[in-house]
Amino acid sequence: MLRNCTLYVKSIALIIGFLWFLPVRSQNLSGCIQGVDRSKGVLGYYLGSQKLLEDSIVFDKKGCFQNKGILKPGFYFISIDSARTLDFFVGEEDIHLSLQSDPWPSVTWKDDANKSFVEFQQIGANINQQFQSGSITAEDAQNLYDQQIVYWHATHENARISKLLQASNPLLQVTEIPKGGIEFWVKQYWGKVPLSDPALLRSPFLQSSLQTFFEKAFYPDADSINVAIDILWNREMDSLVENFCIAWLANHFENSKIMGHDAVFVHVVNKFYKKGRVKWETPETLKKIVAKSDELQWNLIGSVAPNFEFIQSTGQLKHLNDYKGKWTILYFYDATCQHCLEVTPMIFSLFSEFKSKLNVIAISTETTMEEWQSYITKNQYDWVNGYDNRMGQINFRHYYYIPTTPTLLVLDPQLSIAAKGLTPADLREFLLKNLDK
Description:
The chain folds into 3 domains: 12-109, Immunoglobulin-like, CATH 2.60.40; 181-297; 309-434, Glutaredoxin (3-Layer(aba) Sandwich). The chain is built from 13 helices and 15 strands. The chain has helices at residues 12-16, 112-133, 138-155, 160-166, 181-190, 205-215, 222-232, 239-254, 262-271, 283-297, 338-353, 369-379, 424-434, and strands at residues 29-34, 40-47, 50-58, 64-66, 74-81, 84-90, 95-100, 106-109, 309-311, 317-319, 327-333, 358-364, 384-387, 407-411, 417-420. The chain has a 5-stranded mixed beta sheet with strand order 13-12-11-14-15. Strands 4-1-7-8 form a 4-stranded mixed beta sheet. A hairpin with a 2-residue loop joins strand 2 (40-47) and strand 3. The protein starts with 11 loop residues before the first helix and ends with a helix.
């Protein structure tokens, strides 16, 4: 079976809809399965971790079938039932198979690509059999597998199937990022992924290559990732492969839990979504994506926190810029939200601990002024308390992305954004490391 990986991209179904309108060469599928005990089977293809239905196949009395449609390049499967599934590759040739249902799968292919694919799959099956029998250790099994796979690729160097299967593990025999800089490593890694081949889309390998590179095989800081994306887009790409990559990058970095990765989301939106290169989103969805990116762009790590005016409980007007000179926690919360009621006392405890070196500017976002004043008085929060529900003028809501409360940003003494989205425990650790710098 082909290796799978988690699919995050919500827009891929729309991208796949374009498959039938692009001039990609297609192939026919036919075959016979001796002894099949069903009248129908399932024909499907791989897309990331998903196995998507292409069509049903109908067997005649001899177990033979002829697929009614034409197949785009990629990796497919025929499934008789949950225990009997056969993977195969559709490339330049029409596909005809001869298969026995018992033992499964005993298959004969007429095309060279699938003959080679069977050889590739058999390497893992044979080594696994040795491991299961106890004749080799897990470490020996992995080393033997790597050696044989390298040899297999060397003997099939110019074959299309080899280039595609190489993308299943671009890190084969690589244990660390080699020296040579970002451009060198991007070319080394992605040189093993045939981005110009439309068959890469209908496989698990495009998504797994993206996940491996951006989650495990590259520097995690946003600036380096953005440079890598720009270098990657200098490579030739099939149009559908490019669409998949754009959608995956946007979705992945929009939802990343790593601090600062929202800068990558903003970069992807600026580079592709704002320049008319995304055709699969509806105008409404595209507008929302761009609007979110524009809001986030004000609040990226390293940016100067936008200045804004707010009202104190005394009625006095203050500005964020009035508090330069100390580390500052900018804390947006709602006095009536349950999660805020749990977190706010923890933030106040940190304020009390580091009071001589730290400002906290706590801005209420939703409550009425009366509720807010009652809340801060009752809890004796003697940090900087602010409020501004003057909806008829520009206020903090225009400058800060606050998808939920509480939302927290840490500002350095010059009021540049140094961190955000930290838990109270992580915030304390950050303050201990940075307050005396």
